[in-house]
Structures are given as structure tokens and as C-alpha cells.
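Researcher: We plan to redesign the surface later, but first we want a full-length starting point. C-alpha cells attached.
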């Protein structure tokens, strides 16, 4: 997708945002149709027919848009779920977004299926009766609900008032749950890039013109519908009810939902590294960690010791995904500090900043050759261990934004190395959401803690690479080393200048 659309417009980087986008398209198109919709057994079908045929140029297009955007919502939701699952982003602190996501699936299907009933055509009749029979299997109703639907006479206008009320209120719950879903995420991406939004809207409009959504003939409770065209995004459960018993379908639906809900707590081979910890005596209450944490896991509270600062940072362990970005933001994570085992304001217990300095110095100390390079990378991106050589030292971090800018200055200072190469997840696809963005801004001196002016920019290169980009990463490193070589060759020693 990157090859076709570029990282900026790759829909896979915006699946959650596209979910929001399609939701809004559904709400706006739905509001238009609702203005002309009439509630009642005799009124609903003709009113939908009026919207579709008499007003085909607007009402018809809106109806089709409403349907196709709802289908697209399911599609991006399923892809979003699969992507988060495949990337392992559902465990630990992420359980909250995951479980609220599972609840969203239920609500979105409830709203979609309910929407089909509003048309009151043969498809509505088929899915209503099938749903009611399916629910009758549950031992919650004293009298089977299906009795109310078996004849045209028993079916009353109250039913239509109920379903049209539900079709407005369930999306309100969805909106509320969407807000809850991203509550623990800072700077959530809820809007896709404009190009993607416009392109997809145009695609939906073209689809609406080429294949307008039509009803399937008025419902008639005296005749069982025989041939029905089905929307496989929402209504696949009904053909399943034709081949399986209601109990079996309940077992499948409840079983699958429960499995999804407990997934974050099932045993895993991946070890969760310990969460960030604040060292109060080293914290000045500057708030940089709060600003950079992608998961709202650090908060500030009034100082609890007698130091002269107003506030102190506190980590909420249940929200922390152990990315280390906060440690990279903290001004006290500074390798120029003189103590060997210095402690920074906020630290990752598995990889303290003093340990990071020792590891970096140790690997740099073995380097040989004219062009020595220190590579910093990310555990979730291309495996930089493969770049290690006689003249290349490597250090991989939980997220590249765990690297304080001062470490780059430190590596270059006193000629430990000729250049520093920074890599991490592809742009727009940072595993910890904001790491690549913050790193880019810190290096461009647009965000604290910024890379200071004294660090020579020609000696620093950024290149973002996923595990599939190892070849390109190696080539970029070589080109960087070549540029460093020519940089140093072109440099005239100071005494030569003086003689001239
Ligand atoms: C249509 C429904 C949904 C919408 C609109 C939606 C939207 C979003 C958005 C906007 C984000 C933040 C993305 C970012 O800024 O990085 C997000 C995160 C997340 N979503 Fe959804 N979501 C939906 C359904 C689901 C479902 C069904 C699941 C899984 C069961 C799920 C699991 C997650 C997880 C685990 C995250 C956190 C990712 C992270 O921590 O990096 N979502 N969602
Ligand atoms: S490691 Fe730090 S930045 Fe990352 S989630 Fe935890 S508190 Fe936030
Ligand atoms: S960045 Fe460091 S010094 Fe600043 S509030 Fe956070 S822990 Fe304290």
C-alpha cells in the first residue's frame, strides 16, 4: 500500500481514523434520510421508496452512501482489529482499548441490522423474523416474541417507533463508546489525511451512482420470502441460522466474543517489560514526560516532598505500555552527567539511562576504521543487530523516542564516532504511535528536549524502516558512511589553514 499511496495515504495506517470517518458519513447521510422517513407499518416502505426513486439525485444517493459507508465501517473495523491483534497491541495496558473495541463490534452490528428493518422490505422481514426466532431461543421471554411477528395484524406501529428510536439511540451509544475507546490514548488520530478522506468519499459516491441501493419489494407476513439478496457485512449471521440451530449460533457468537474479551490476559510468550518509574529526587516537575507519553500514563500532582518544585510526575502503571518515551523526554536523562550510576527523573527499570550510556560506550569503544557510526534503533522495527560490524555499533530501544537527544551529542562529542544513524518504525506506523513523530521533532529542534545547535547535523541521519526494509536500511547506512567519509576528507586541518 505504501508503494501505491505513499505512507501519508496508506489506509492501513489510518484504520481507526477511517472508522471514525465512515461513522460520520453514516450519521450525516442517515440524518438526511431520516428527515423524509415515515414511521409505521404502512408508511415506512413507501417513504423509503420515495427517497430512493423520487429523489434519486439526492435522497437515493444518500441512502446508498448510508449503506456503503456502513459496510466500509465494518470492513475497516475488522481490519483494525486484525492489525492490532497481529501487531500484539492488545495486551497489558492496551486491554482497555481492546475490550471497548469488542463492545463496539456488538453495538455496530446491532445498529446495522436494526437499520435493515427500517426499510420494511422482504429483506427486513426475513432478518426481523430470523432475529426474533433466534432471540426466542434464550430463556428470557415468557412468551415467544415471534408470535408478534407471524401475522401482519399483530405487527403494529409501536414496533416501528421502537426500531426507529433504537436506530437513533444506538449510534449515540456508539459515539460515547468511541470516546471511551480512545480515552487512554493521547493525540489519537481520529481523522484520516484529507486526500484519503476525499478519495474514499468519491469512491463511495461513484459506487452509489453505479450500483444504487434498492429495496427488495414490500414485506408481507403472509408470504415467506424465497429469494433475498443479502448484505454480507452485516447479515451473514442469518444464513448461518438457516443451517445451524439457534443454540449453536448463540454458542458461536458468545464464545467468539468471550474469547476476544479474554485475549489480552491469555498466556503469551512475549515478556512484558516493567513499567516506567519516577525517581522523585531527580524530578523537577517540568511536565515533558506528560507531554510525550502516548498513553496518558503519566500525570502531575502536587509535590509530596520538600523540594522547591510545585509538581511531581506520577506513573499510572495500568496505563503504561513500557515504551520508554517518557525517559527519552526527561531533561535529567543526560549522559553528560558525571555520576556513573546516575538516575533520571523517570526511568525504565529494565534499561536505566546510566545502563544505556554504558552499553553505548562499550559498543563504541570496539569500533575501528575511518568512519565509525553509532546506530540507534527500535525493537519493533528493522532488526539493527544485522547492521553491527567492525565500524558500526548498534543499540536497540523499546521505542526510538526513548533516546534522549543528548545521547546523540554525547556519541559525537570527543569523536567517539564520526556519525549517528537513527532508525525506527516507518513514518505513520510507529508501534508506540508517537515515537517517530517526537524523535523527528526533537532532532529538528521543534520539541523539547531538542537536539542542541552544537551537534553537527551532517553527522546525523534519520531513516525509518520496518523489518521488511532491511536492505534499504543497509543501503542508507552505507550512503551515510560515504557522505561522512567525504565530509572528513574535505575538512582541511586547522594548521594547514594557518600556514596558507
Ligand atoms: C469502528 C470501530 C472502531 C473505531 C472507529 C476505532 C478507532 C480507534 C482509534 C481512532 C484508535 C487510536 C489510533 C491511534 O491514534 O493510534 C484506536 C485504537 C485502538 N483500537 Fe480501535 N476502533 C474501533 C474498533 C476497535 C475494535 C473492534 C478493536 C479490537 C477489538 C479495537 C482495538 C483497538 C486497540 C487495541 C487500540 C489501541 C492501539 C494502541 O494502543 O496503539 N478497536 N481505535
Ligand atoms: S513508558 Fe513512559 S511514555 Fe511509555 S507508556 Fe509508560 S509512562 Fe508513557
Ligand atoms: S520529564 Fe522528568 S523531570 Fe520532567 S516531570 Fe517528567 S520525570 Fe519529572
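Model: Full-length starting sequence:
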Amino acid at each position: 500500500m505504501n508503494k501505491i499511496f505513499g505512507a501519508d495515504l496508506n489506509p492501513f495506517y489510518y484504520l481507526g481514523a477511517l472508522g471514525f470517518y465512515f461513522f460520520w458519513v453514516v450519521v450525516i447521510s442517515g440524518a438526511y434520510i431520516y428527515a423524509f422517513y415515515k414511521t409505521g407499518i404502512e408508511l415506512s416502505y413507501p417513504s423509503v421508496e420515495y427517497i430512493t426513486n423520487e429523489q434519486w439525485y439526492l435522497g437515493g444517493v444518500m441512502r446508498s452512501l448510508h449503506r456503503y459507508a456502513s459496510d466500509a465501517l465494518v470492513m475497516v473495523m475488522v481490519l483494525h482489529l486484525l492489525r492490532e491483534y497481529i501487531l500484539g497491541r492488545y495486551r497489558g495496558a492496551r486491554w482497555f482499548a481492546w475490550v471497548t473495541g469488542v463492545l463496539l463490534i456488538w453495538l455496530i452490528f446491532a445498529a446495522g441490522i436494526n437499520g435493515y428493518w427500517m426499510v420494511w422490505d422482504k429483506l427486513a422481514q426475513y432478518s426481523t423474523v430470523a432475529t426474533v426466532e433466534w432471540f426466542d431461543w434464550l430463556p428470557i421471554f415468557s412468551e415467544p416474541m415471534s408470535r408478534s411477528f407471524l401475522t401482519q395484524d399483530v405487527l403494529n406501529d409501536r414496533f416501528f417507533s421502537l426500531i426507529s428510536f433504537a436506530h437513533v439511540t444506538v449510534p449515540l451509544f456508539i459515539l460515547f463508546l468511541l470516546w471511551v475507546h480512545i480515552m487512554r490514548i493521547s493525540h489519537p488520530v481520529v481523522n484520516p489525511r484529507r486526500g484519503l478522506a476525499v478519495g474514499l468519499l468519491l469512491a463511495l459516491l461513484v459506487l452509489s451512482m453505479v450500483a444504487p441501493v434498492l429495496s427488495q419489494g414490500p414485506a408481507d407476513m403472509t408470504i415467506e420470502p424465497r429469494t433475498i439478496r443479502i448484505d454480507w457485512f452485516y447479515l451473514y449471521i442469518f444464513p448461518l441460522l438457516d443451517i445451524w440451530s439457534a443454540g449453536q449460533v448463540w454458542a458461536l457468537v458468545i464464545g467468539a466474543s468471550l474469547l476476544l474479551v479474554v485475549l489480552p490476559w491469555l498466556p503469551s510468550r512475549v515478556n512484558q517489560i516493567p513499567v516506567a518509574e519516577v525517581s522523585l529526587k531527580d524530578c523537577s516537575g517540568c511536565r515533558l514526560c506528560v507531554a510525550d507519553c502516548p498513553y496518558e500514563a503519566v500525570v502531575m500532582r502536587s509535590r509530596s516532598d520538600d523540594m522547591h518544585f510545585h509538581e511531581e510526575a506520577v506513573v499510572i502503571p495500568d496505563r503504561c505500555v513500557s515504551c520508554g518515551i517518557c525517559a527519552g523526554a526527561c531533561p535529567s536523562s543526560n549522559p553528560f552527567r558525571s555520576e556513573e550510576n546516575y538516575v533520571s527523573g523517570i526511568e525504565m527499570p529494565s534499561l536505566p539511562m546510566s545502563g544505556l550510556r554504558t552499553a553505548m560506550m562499550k559498543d563504541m569503544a570496539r569500533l575501528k576504521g575511518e568512519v565509525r557510526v553509532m546506530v540507534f534503533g527500535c525493537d519493533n522495527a528493522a532488526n539493527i543487530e544485522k547492521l553491527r560490524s567492525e565500524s558500526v555499533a548498534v543499540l536497540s530501544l523499546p521505542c526510538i523516542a526513548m533516546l534522549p537527544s543528548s545521547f546523540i551529542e554525547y556519541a559525537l562529542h570527543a569523536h567517539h564516532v564520526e556519525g549517528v544513524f537513527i532508525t525506527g518504525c516507518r513514518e505513520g506506523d510507529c508501534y508506540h504511535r508517537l515515537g517517530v513523530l517526537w524523535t523527528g521533532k526533537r532532532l529538528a529542534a521543534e520539541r523539547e528536549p531538542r537536539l542542541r545547535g552544537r551537534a553537527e547535523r551532517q553527522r546525523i541521519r534519520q531513516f525509518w524502516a520496518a523489518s521488511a526494509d532491511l536492505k534499504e536500511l543497509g543501503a542508507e547506512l552505507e550512503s551515510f558512511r560515504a557522505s561522512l567519509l567525504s565530509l572528513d576528507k574535505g575538512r582541511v586541518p586547522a594548521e594547514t589553514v594557518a600556514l596558507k
